[in-house]
Amino acid sequence: MQWLLDLDGVVWRMDTPIDGSVEAVNRLLAQGHDVRFVTNNSSLSRSQYVAKLGRMGVEAQRDQILTSAMAAATLVKPGDRVLAIGELGLVEELEAVGADLVVPRSLEDVVGIDSVVLGWYRKFSYIDMSNACVAILSGARFVATNADPTYPLERLVVPGTGALVASVVTATSVSPTVAGKPEDPMVGLLRPLLEEHTIMVGDRLSTDGRFAARLGVEFGLVSSGIQEAHDHEIPVSLAAHSLAEIVNMRLV
Ligand SMILES: [Mg+2]
Protein backbone atom coordinates (compact mmCIF):
# COMPACT_ATOMS: atom_id res chain seq x y z
CA MET A 1 0.00 0.00 0.00
CA GLN A 2 1.07 3.57 -0.56
CA TRP A 3 1.10 6.15 2.24
CA LEU A 4 1.30 9.87 1.53
CA LEU A 5 2.17 11.50 4.84
CA ASP A 6 1.96 15.16 5.69
CA LEU A 7 4.79 16.16 8.04
CA ASP A 8 3.85 19.20 10.20
CA GLY A 9 1.17 18.14 12.65
CA VAL A 10 1.34 14.48 11.57
CA VAL A 11 4.92 13.24 11.99
CA TRP A 12 6.11 16.14 14.14
CA ARG A 13 5.30 19.50 15.60
CA MET A 14 8.33 21.67 14.83
CA ASP A 15 11.24 19.68 16.29
CA THR A 16 9.27 17.24 18.43
CA PRO A 17 7.97 13.94 17.03
CA ILE A 18 4.28 13.31 17.68
CA ASP A 19 3.80 10.33 20.01
CA GLY A 20 4.12 7.05 18.13
CA SER A 21 4.68 8.62 14.70
CA VAL A 22 8.30 7.55 14.28
CA GLU A 23 7.45 3.96 15.21
CA ALA A 24 4.44 4.06 12.87
CA VAL A 25 6.48 5.26 9.89
CA ASN A 26 9.17 2.68 10.59
CA ARG A 27 6.53 -0.04 10.77
CA LEU A 28 5.27 0.97 7.31
CA LEU A 29 8.80 1.05 5.90
CA ALA A 30 9.69 -2.32 7.46
CA GLN A 31 6.62 -3.88 5.86
CA GLY A 32 7.61 -2.56 2.44
CA HIS A 33 4.90 0.10 2.02
CA ASP A 34 5.63 2.95 -0.38
CA VAL A 35 5.90 5.94 1.98
CA ARG A 36 6.09 9.50 0.65
CA PHE A 37 6.30 12.66 2.74
CA VAL A 38 4.18 15.39 1.15
CA THR A 39 4.57 18.78 2.81
CA ASN A 40 3.42 22.32 2.10
CA ASN A 41 6.33 23.60 4.19
CA SER A 42 8.86 25.06 1.74
CA SER A 43 11.41 26.13 4.36
CA LEU A 44 13.64 23.03 4.41
CA SER A 45 15.43 21.49 1.43
CA ARG A 46 14.91 17.84 0.57
CA SER A 47 18.31 17.00 2.12
CA GLN A 48 17.34 18.87 5.28
CA TYR A 49 14.08 16.89 5.50
CA VAL A 50 16.00 13.62 5.10
CA ALA A 51 18.36 14.77 7.88
CA LYS A 52 15.50 15.88 10.16
CA LEU A 53 13.70 12.56 9.71
CA GLY A 54 17.02 10.81 10.35
CA ARG A 55 17.54 12.67 13.64
CA MET A 56 14.12 11.42 14.73
CA GLY A 57 14.94 7.84 13.75
CA VAL A 58 13.34 7.52 10.29
CA GLU A 59 15.64 6.56 7.43
CA ALA A 60 14.14 8.32 4.41
CA GLN A 61 15.46 8.79 0.89
CA ARG A 62 15.48 12.06 -0.99
CA ASP A 63 12.95 10.82 -3.56
CA GLN A 64 10.42 10.16 -0.78
CA ILE A 65 10.24 13.90 -0.03
CA LEU A 66 7.77 16.10 -1.95
CA THR A 67 7.54 19.77 -1.00
CA SER A 68 5.49 22.76 -2.08
CA ALA A 69 8.78 24.35 -3.20
CA MET A 70 9.18 21.53 -5.75
CA ALA A 71 5.62 22.14 -6.92
CA ALA A 72 6.30 25.90 -7.21
CA ALA A 73 9.47 25.21 -9.21
CA THR A 74 7.41 23.39 -11.86
CA LEU A 75 5.85 26.80 -12.64
CA VAL A 76 9.22 28.39 -13.43
CA LYS A 77 11.21 28.02 -16.63
CA PRO A 78 15.01 27.92 -16.92
CA GLY A 79 16.36 31.46 -17.20
CA ASP A 80 13.24 33.09 -15.72
CA ARG A 81 14.14 36.06 -13.54
CA VAL A 82 12.60 35.18 -10.19
CA LEU A 83 12.33 36.91 -6.85
CA ALA A 84 12.38 34.09 -4.30
CA ILE A 85 11.07 35.09 -0.88
CA GLY A 86 11.60 32.07 1.30
CA GLU A 87 14.12 29.81 2.96
CA LEU A 88 16.70 27.31 1.68
CA GLY A 89 14.12 24.75 0.56
CA LEU A 90 12.58 27.22 -1.87
CA VAL A 91 15.86 28.68 -3.11
CA GLU A 92 17.33 25.22 -3.83
CA GLU A 93 14.36 24.02 -5.87
CA LEU A 94 14.24 27.23 -7.93
CA GLU A 95 17.98 27.02 -8.60
CA ALA A 96 17.59 23.38 -9.60
CA VAL A 97 15.23 24.31 -12.45
CA GLY A 98 17.62 27.01 -13.66
CA ALA A 99 15.81 30.10 -12.42
CA ASP A 100 17.84 33.30 -12.39
CA LEU A 101 17.30 34.44 -8.80
CA VAL A 102 17.14 38.21 -8.44
CA VAL A 103 18.83 39.73 -5.38
CA PRO A 104 17.34 43.23 -5.28
CA ARG A 105 19.35 46.12 -3.84
CA SER A 106 16.54 48.57 -4.55
CA LEU A 107 12.91 48.45 -5.63
CA GLU A 108 14.02 49.32 -9.19
CA ASP A 109 15.72 45.92 -9.42
CA VAL A 110 12.44 44.00 -9.30
CA VAL A 111 10.60 45.98 -11.99
CA GLY A 112 10.02 43.76 -15.04
CA ILE A 113 11.10 40.42 -13.55
CA ASP A 114 9.19 37.25 -14.54
CA SER A 115 7.93 35.84 -11.24
CA VAL A 116 7.67 36.31 -7.51
CA VAL A 117 7.65 33.03 -5.57
CA LEU A 118 6.64 33.45 -1.95
CA GLY A 119 7.09 30.70 0.63
CA TRP A 120 7.23 30.43 4.40
CA TYR A 121 9.90 32.92 5.46
CA ARG A 122 10.52 33.57 9.11
CA LYS A 123 12.51 36.73 8.36
CA PHE A 124 9.76 38.20 6.12
CA SER A 125 10.05 41.99 6.27
CA TYR A 126 8.42 45.15 4.93
CA ILE A 127 11.21 45.26 2.33
CA ASP A 128 10.34 41.75 1.12
CA MET A 129 6.66 42.68 0.99
CA SER A 130 7.45 45.85 -0.99
CA ASN A 131 9.73 44.01 -3.44
CA ALA A 132 7.00 41.43 -4.06
CA CYS A 133 4.30 44.05 -4.57
CA VAL A 134 6.36 46.27 -6.89
CA ALA A 135 7.35 43.27 -9.00
CA ILE A 136 3.76 41.98 -9.22
CA LEU A 137 2.32 45.40 -10.05
CA SER A 138 4.91 45.73 -12.83
CA GLY A 139 3.71 42.45 -14.35
CA ALA A 140 5.52 39.59 -12.57
CA ARG A 141 3.56 36.38 -12.04
CA PHE A 142 2.67 35.81 -8.38
CA VAL A 143 3.27 32.25 -7.15
CA ALA A 144 2.77 31.11 -3.56
CA THR A 145 4.23 27.81 -2.38
CA ASN A 146 1.11 27.29 -0.25
CA ALA A 147 -1.68 29.15 1.47
CA ASP A 148 -1.71 27.52 4.92
CA PRO A 149 -2.78 30.32 7.28
CA THR A 150 -0.97 28.89 10.31
CA TYR A 151 1.89 26.64 11.36
CA PRO A 152 1.82 24.33 14.41
CA LEU A 153 4.74 24.78 16.83
CA GLU A 154 5.08 22.36 19.76
CA ARG A 155 2.46 24.09 21.89
CA LEU A 156 1.46 27.24 20.04
CA VAL A 157 0.35 28.13 16.53
CA VAL A 158 2.12 30.85 14.49
CA PRO A 159 1.37 32.50 11.12
CA GLY A 160 2.02 30.37 8.04
CA THR A 161 2.75 31.29 4.42
CA GLY A 162 -0.89 32.21 3.82
CA ALA A 163 -0.56 35.11 6.23
CA LEU A 164 2.44 36.46 4.31
CA VAL A 165 0.60 35.95 1.02
CA ALA A 166 -2.39 37.90 2.37
CA SER A 167 -0.25 41.01 2.89
CA VAL A 168 0.82 40.97 -0.76
CA VAL A 169 -2.72 40.28 -1.97
CA THR A 170 -3.99 43.22 0.10
CA ALA A 171 -1.49 45.63 -1.46
CA THR A 172 -1.75 44.39 -5.07
CA SER A 173 -5.28 42.96 -5.39
CA VAL A 174 -3.58 40.11 -7.28
CA SER A 175 -4.25 36.53 -6.21
CA PRO A 176 -1.37 34.07 -6.46
CA THR A 177 -1.13 30.76 -8.24
CA VAL A 178 -0.80 28.40 -5.28
CA ALA A 179 1.55 25.45 -5.83
CA GLY A 180 1.16 23.19 -2.80
CA LYS A 181 -1.65 20.92 -1.55
CA PRO A 182 -4.46 20.85 -2.72
CA GLU A 183 -3.64 22.73 -5.91
CA ASP A 184 -2.73 21.59 -9.45
CA PRO A 185 1.08 21.81 -9.33
CA MET A 186 1.30 19.44 -6.33
CA VAL A 187 -1.37 17.18 -7.84
CA GLY A 188 0.79 17.07 -10.97
CA LEU A 189 3.87 16.04 -8.97
CA LEU A 190 2.04 13.18 -7.25
CA ARG A 191 -0.06 11.77 -10.08
CA PRO A 192 2.72 9.87 -11.85
CA LEU A 193 3.78 8.28 -8.53
CA LEU A 194 0.35 7.06 -7.42
CA GLU A 195 -0.26 3.39 -6.76
CA GLU A 196 -3.54 1.51 -6.78
CA HIS A 197 -4.16 1.61 -3.02
CA THR A 198 -3.14 4.92 -1.53
CA ILE A 199 -4.02 6.83 1.62
CA MET A 200 -3.11 10.44 2.38
CA VAL A 201 -2.73 11.21 6.10
CA GLY A 202 -2.92 14.85 7.17
CA ASP A 203 -4.15 17.25 9.81
CA ARG A 204 -5.78 19.84 7.54
CA LEU A 205 -9.05 19.22 5.73
CA SER A 206 -8.59 22.29 3.50
CA THR A 207 -5.21 21.16 2.16
CA ASP A 208 -4.62 17.45 2.87
CA GLY A 209 -8.28 16.45 2.69
CA ARG A 210 -8.96 18.33 -0.53
CA PHE A 211 -5.69 17.03 -1.97
CA ALA A 212 -6.68 13.41 -1.26
CA ALA A 213 -10.06 14.03 -2.87
CA ARG A 214 -8.46 15.52 -5.96
CA LEU A 215 -6.08 12.56 -6.27
CA GLY A 216 -8.97 10.16 -5.71
CA VAL A 217 -7.29 8.47 -2.74
CA GLU A 218 -8.40 7.77 0.82
CA PHE A 219 -7.93 10.43 3.47
CA GLY A 220 -6.89 9.78 7.06
CA LEU A 221 -7.53 12.82 9.24
CA VAL A 222 -5.50 13.26 12.43
CA SER A 223 -6.07 15.74 15.25
CA SER A 224 -2.39 15.99 16.29
CA GLY A 225 -1.78 19.23 14.39
CA ILE A 226 -4.01 22.06 13.21
CA GLN A 227 -7.67 21.31 13.83
CA GLU A 228 -10.00 22.84 11.27
CA ALA A 229 -13.76 23.06 11.36
CA HIS A 230 -15.54 20.10 9.78
CA ASP A 231 -16.41 20.40 6.13
CA HIS A 232 -18.91 17.83 4.95
CA GLU A 233 -17.84 18.30 1.34
CA ILE A 234 -14.44 16.76 2.08
CA PRO A 235 -14.56 12.97 2.46
CA VAL A 236 -12.71 11.48 5.44
CA SER A 237 -12.03 7.72 5.27
CA LEU A 238 -10.52 7.42 8.75
CA ALA A 239 -10.27 9.87 11.63
CA ALA A 240 -7.96 9.43 14.62
CA HIS A 241 -5.82 11.29 17.12
CA SER A 242 -2.55 10.42 15.46
CA LEU A 243 -0.73 8.74 12.59
CA ALA A 244 0.08 5.85 14.93
CA GLU A 245 -3.65 5.22 15.38
CA ILE A 246 -4.34 5.37 11.65
CA VAL A 247 -1.52 2.91 10.97
CA ASN A 248 -2.87 0.61 13.71
CA MET A 249 -6.34 0.74 12.15
CA ARG A 250 -4.98 -0.18 8.73
CA LEU A 251 -2.32 -2.75 9.59
CA VAL A 252 -4.17 -5.38 11.54
MG1 LIG B 1 0.05 19.52 8.45
From TrEMBL:
<dbReference type="GO" id="GO:0016787">
    <property type="term" value="F:hydrolase activity"/>
</dbReference>
<dbReference type="InterPro" id="IPR036412">
    <property type="entry name" value="HAD-like_sf"/>
</dbReference>
<dbReference type="InterPro" id="IPR006357">
    <property type="entry name" value="HAD-SF_hydro_IIA"/>
</dbReference>
<protein>
    <submittedName>
        <fullName>HAD-IIA family hydrolase</fullName>
    </submittedName>
</protein>
<keyword id="KW-0378">Hydrolase</keyword>
<dbReference type="InterPro" id="IPR023214">
    <property type="entry name" value="HAD_sf"/>
</dbReference>
<dbReference type="Pfam" id="PF13242">
    <property type="entry name" value="Hydrolase_like"/>
</dbReference>
<dbReference type="Pfam" id="PF13344">
    <property type="entry name" value="Hydrolase_6"/>
</dbReference>
